[in-house]
Amino acid sequence: MSQVEKIMRDIYADIDYVLIDEDKLQVRLQELADRIEADYEGKDDLLLLCVLKGGYTVLSDLSRKIKRPHAVDFMGVSSYGGATKSSGEVQILMDLKSPIAGRHVLIVEDIIDSGHTLNYLRRTLLARNPASLEIFTLLNKPSRREIDISIKYTGFDIPDEFVCGYGLDFDEIYRNLPFIAVMKPEVFAHLKG
Ligand code: IMP
Ligand code: MG
Question: Which of 34, 39, 113, 148 is catalytic?
């Protein structure tokens, strides 16, 4: 067995169950891409703003499903450290490359949990005077919300489970799983946070 095969075997052994499989993800993303195309009809200068790191997979698939011209830019944000709960403290690790004043900005997030990250991002970005600012999230955990957030596009509402895969990590691993999975509880057993 090669090193890569061994690592993949170990990662798959950590999975409890698959919550959303690859087909379901792609079908839902196509539906939302179609809606975005219709909603942004006649609005030039659409910018998909990917929230790193977790948003990179969904941004890549969503962007290729939207046929109208658009730009992409990236913002690095951290709110968790190594824990499974948001601290409420959001840090910008990497800012956008270009100004957003006068542009139609669609934030692309992997997941909205407490809402702290998005609330902070929204306020920060609104101060830069975009023409419009909307939120897309692949996953939403409504039962965990601490701050009210208006989401324009939601892929899936999910229960209060910590999920990994399709860009989402636990302590920087499992992002490469091609589906959304719930990991076995013992994966988190060593955690203090
Ligand atoms: P919030 O600030 O509590 O809404 O947290 C949002 C961020 O926390 C997301 O962008 C993710 O990076 C991370 N996050 C929240 N829930 C999960 C999860 O179930 N798995 C992996 N990361 C998560
Ligand atoms: Mg994230």
Answer: 113
pLDDT tens per residue, range 15-35? 999 999 999 999 999 999 999
Q: Is 163 in the pocket of ligand 1 (CB under 6 A)?
A: yes
**181 Cβ closer than 6 Å to some ligand 1 atom:** no
Q: Per the structure block, which two tokens stand in for 95?
A: 């800012």
Q: What's the CATH number where 132 sits?
A: 3.40.50.2020
Do residues 47 and 188 lie in contact, with contact meaning Cβ atoms separated by under 8 Å? no
Crossing angle between the packed helical segments 22-39 and 56-65, to the nearest 10 degrees: 60
N-term to C-term CA, the chain:
35
List the chain residues with pLDDT less than 70.
7, 80-88, 190-193
- Entry pTM: 0.91
Could you tell which of 79, 116, 143, 177 is best to mutate to test the pocket of ligand 1, judged by most ligand atoms within 8 Å of the CB?
79
Report how many domains make up the chain.
Answer: 1
* pLDDT at residue number 85: 61
79 within a domain of the structure (yes/no): yes
Domain that holds residue 84: 22-161
Give residue 69 CA to ligand 2 midpoint distance, Å. 25
